[in-house]
Design brief:
mainly alpha; about 260 residues; 12 helices; about 80% helix
Amino acid sequence: MLAGEPAVEVLGHRIVWSAALTLGLVLALGRAELLVGVFRDKKRLLGLTASALCITLNWGFFIWGVGHGRALEVSLGYFMYPLCMVLLGALFLGERLNRQQLAAVLLVGAGVAVMTIGQGGVPWLVLVFPLSFGFYGLLRKTVAVDSLVGLTVETMLLFPLALAYLATRPDGGALLAGNGGTTALLVLCGPVTAAPLLLFAYGARRLRLTTLGLMQYFNPTMQMAIAVWVFGEVFTRIHAITFACIWGGLLLYSLPRPRPAG
């Protein structure tokens, strides 16, 4: 719906309206002291600065990719993301998989490999999403901060740059020069952005990174469905094989673990 607007401008509105919404929630819920405490804590502030940069990269290329007719490529990137989460969990948090979970991950990996080979390689856009959001999840899991306060800090750190860019747009940019529908969509970027990230940050502090990663396959599945049914992109046999592998792996991962004999 906003494909006619520059991706950077849409990104700017995501940041500005998310910052306004989350700051309002923090104040309304009486968590202002927690917010100030994070800004006074250099270690946590540094971690959230890094996570803010990761999510900005993720948002920006997502907006650009969907707006330029590459929604299937974007969905492939998010299909790879849970594998990246499993790898990061093993490398940085010492998480280990049992045989059943390992088999599930390998099955999912086979599906992603099929799609990658079918598309003739892994394009650069695909790699941006698992790496940026994977490190975002890792940082949010390791930085001890309330989910709402953490997201508020992230968006407030980005807010000055986003506002400065929007303020220099000719004729006020899409917000003022566009019609009422465009204005409403840009303002809605705030709640549409903040709600899932708040839930993600809440879950990231309470779930194993590997579990959190595999659950993320719901996201690219929906993206691929929209790409095919709404945007009219072609769903091939390669996509069908990939889906079968991915959902088979999810089913295997979610099954009860066998109990040791005796």
